[in-house]
Amino acid sequence: MLIRHLSFFVTLAQEKHFKKAADACNVTQPTLSAAIRKLEEDLGATLIVRGHRFLGLTPEGEKALAWGRQILLDYDSLKDDLHGSRKGLTGSLRLGVIPAAMPSVSFLTERFCEGHPDVLVDIRSMTSRAIQRGLDDFEIEGGLTYLDNEPLEKVRRIPLYRERYAFVCRSDHALAGHGAVTWAQAVKEPLCLLSEDMQNRRILNSIAESVGLTISPPIVSNSFLSICAHLRSGKWCGIMPHTFSYIFGPDSGLVSVELIEPSESHTIGLVLSARSPQSPMVTALVAALGSVDFEGRFREAMGPR
């Protein structure tokens, strides 16, 4: 079995189209088809449901796909390990980051890039469920997500910091000058929040429900950028991770007020595939992580809370 035959098969499973897969592999369609038939002969199993077009994978093909992705990753990691020891790490570091953790990701990438300037860091905004799929399918090297709420499975977890929650409004809002705002006060305001397909919103719902409250925002979005734009207008308020004060800055016109009754927090951390050995890219990522004090960086930028 040749590695390139396995690569053709994995590409076909991704593209779900013979011509598109052949183009992606820079070969002709007959060459791709012949390579996959040779792979089937070597494995002694039919992997593709064939017709006039690609119809899907057989049950054996699904198993082969999972193994194929892992084998290809190990092969690339082997090459990186051999070459990296001589000339330094190259390639791409792919990180999936939930929107709530975006304020912290630069702390990690800053230190990583200092040690590995020839690596492209590819940051993707993803839900926690998408991060799970990305790790399972070897499409990302790591993810930043919640560790203690809807935890991911079969992953290595490294805690980074505790996320708290703040009431955010424009500086001329009646509650802007308060030292703290209760959840009961916050839910009475016209809110713009994340939509319920986002884990952060489900956390907010759970906190409110724990004290007998219901959150009914007139506007929802799956983008914190959209939420911030609405907050700047002054017509809406928000409930956001306290770390977004780092993004707002002192001249944004927005004020972040601590939310109490109850005061809740959740752990944000790095998740990695639990498989061993780890790739050189993941090993370098963990090494960079060890020298970053996330809580300290936020305190330095925003002041203690």
SSE layout:
Layout: H1 3-15, H2 18-25, H3 29-43, H4 59-87, E1 91-97, H5 102-115, E2 119-125, H6 128-136, E3 142-146, E4 155-170, E5 180-182, H7 183-186, E6 192-194, H8 199-210, E7 219-221, H9 224-233, E8 238-241, H10 245-248, E9 254-260, E10 265-273, H11 280-289, H12 294-302
Parallel strand pairs: 1-2, 1-3, 5-9, 6-7
Antiparallel strand pairs: 3-10, 4-8, 4-9, 4-10
Helix pairs in contact: 1-2, 1-3, 1-4, 2-3, 5-11
Question: What keywords describe this structure?
Answer:
single chain, alpha/beta, Arc Repressor Mutant, subunit A, 3 domains, 8-stranded mixed sheet, two-stranded parallel sheet, 12 helices
Give an overview in words.
With about 300 residues, the chain is of the alpha/beta class. It folds into three domains: about 5-70, Winged helix-like DNA-binding domain superfamily/Winged helix DNA-binding domain (Arc Repressor Mutant, subunit A, Orthogonal Bundle), CATH 1.10.10; about 85-160 and about 270-300, Periplasmic binding protein-like II (D-Maltodextrin-Binding Protein, domain 2), CATH 3.40.190; about 160-265, D-Maltodextrin-Binding Protein, domain 2 (3-Layer(aba) Sandwich), CATH 3.40.190.290. About 45% of the residues lie in helices and about 20% in strands. It contains twelve helices and ten strands. The strands form two sheets. Strands 1, 2, 3, 4, 5, 8, 9 and 10 form an eight-stranded mixed beta sheet that branches. It has a two-stranded parallel ribbon with strand order 6-7. The longest helix has 29 residues, at about 60-85.
